[in-house]
Amino acid sequence: MTGKERIYSTMRHEQGIDKVAWVPFAGIYAGKLTGHSTTDVLTDEDKLYESLVKVNETYKPDGQPIMFDLQIEAEILGCELMWADKTPPSVKTHPLESNDDIPDYIPKEYDGRIPVALNTLKRLKNGAIGQNTALYGLICGPFTLASHLRGNDIFMDMIDKPEYVKRLLDYTADVAQAMAGYYIDAGADVVAVVDPLVSQISPIHFAEFLSDRFARIFSFIRQKGVFSSFFVCGNATRNIEEMCKTRPDCISIDENIDMPSAKKITDRYNIVIGGNIPLTSVMLYGSQYDNMKYVIGLLDAMDHHNLIISPGCDMPYDVPPENVVGVRQAIDDTEAVRGMLKNYKIGAQQKEIEIELPDYDKLERPLIEVFTIDSATCAACGYMVDAVKVAKQHFGDKIDFIEYKAVNRENIYRIQKMGIKNLPCIFINGELKYSSIIPDRKELFEEIERYLVKK
User: Fold this and answer.
1) Is the pLDDT assigned to residue 455 strictly greater than 70?
2) pLDDT per residue over 143-170, tens digit each?
3) Residue 442: partners with Cβ closer than 8 Å, 6 or more residues away
4) Which of 24, 137, 188, 427 could serve as 369's disulfide partner, Cβ 3.0–4.6 Å?
5) Taking a C-beta distance cutoff of 8 angstroms, is the pair 198, 210 a contact?
């Protein structure tokens, strides 16, 4: 059975598949293997192609994405981007931030960096990789794209301007459907709608604003004879069932969600679930043994029907290649690896770092700590940090603010010491205030004012 056949059989919910499917999300990480920067692989078709071929040769994936960049559509629609060598670009400006306009331009397949992705997909599709590996086209989901265009105000808009938000989401859903069509026409086997900000809203808001629009996109993909995946980041546990109701073929999750518990829900709807190897604590800073042990734990915790093993999101640029190879080995030779690591504990090879927390009772002014995966790469993290930056601009020297990124090894231990279960989150003076929910400006300001009164 080829990897592509394995993905197809999994998406068709077939029984008796030879082993669990493996999809390494190597977006910017693909450049790591060829020495190309993020900018190289996201703007240069030849360098992207070279890097994806190397990913395929090295990790033998059953499925792999072409490009993992949620800013392609936003850039075309007027958002300015900030670029870095080892992280995806992030949105710098929001063209709808100061007006209530609804754009009417739908990106064309020749706009911006879309041709880089489509041409690379066609080249891979026409060779041995396309015959043996399921190729994923990733598009920016309608809620995250709306947030890119509108900025943080969209969360308050859902309360104050619900009809405007619905019209904006109708437009961004049209953009997502058009992008899905371009990938399908270029030969994608799976179209993944990636919408990390879904984790930041309630099931009530999901049902009101997003359900019909996602259902329309997945119905369109299905009618085109292609499989779909609904990719969410962050603690979207409360929204898993609502996501299932939109009828994707697969739901992909990250480490913020307990995968065995989520699979009980997706199984009720006969939907594949994919995930959820931790990006930093295991893949980036763990050993090869840690990665193999974690995957064995996932395989032992769940029925293998309707299951794909993958990282929780786009792998960080500096993940050691041997760690990804270890994941593949754990899937290919599960019994041997299980026996080899029977008495091994994750983290046994890591040296623990001592962390000293602030004396919160003796602070001169309120301290806002934002714990993120990385605001430069995680959309939900970025918007949570932006919310606090707005507060910092408003309150100035009356408050202090710091971001702790989990891509830093020391911060992993800080997160553990604080007892944090889900990212991103906001603490004020050591007290958890917002976990996987981005506060609107009014709410956050009022919360800060309460701490200022205490002082």
Assistant:
1) no
2) 999 999 999 899 999 999 999 999 999 9
3) 156
4) 427
5) yes
Q: Are 37 and 31 in contact (CB under 8 A)?
A: yes
Provide the whole-model pTM: 0.91
pLDDT digits (tens, 9 = 90+) for 194-247: 999 999 999 999 999 999 999 999 999 999 999 999 999 989 999 999 999 999
In CATH, 3-332 is 3.40.50.1370: no
Cβ atoms 254, 316 nearer than 8 A: no
CA-closest candidate to residue 280, choices 117, 426, 420: 420
Tell me the backbone φ, ψ of residue 240, rounded to 5 degrees: -60, -45
> Residue 21's beta-bridge partner residues?
308
- The domain locations on the chain are 3-332, 360-454
Between CA 424 and CA 372 the distance in angstroms is: 4
Domain 360-454 CATH superfamily? Glutaredoxin (3.40.30.10)
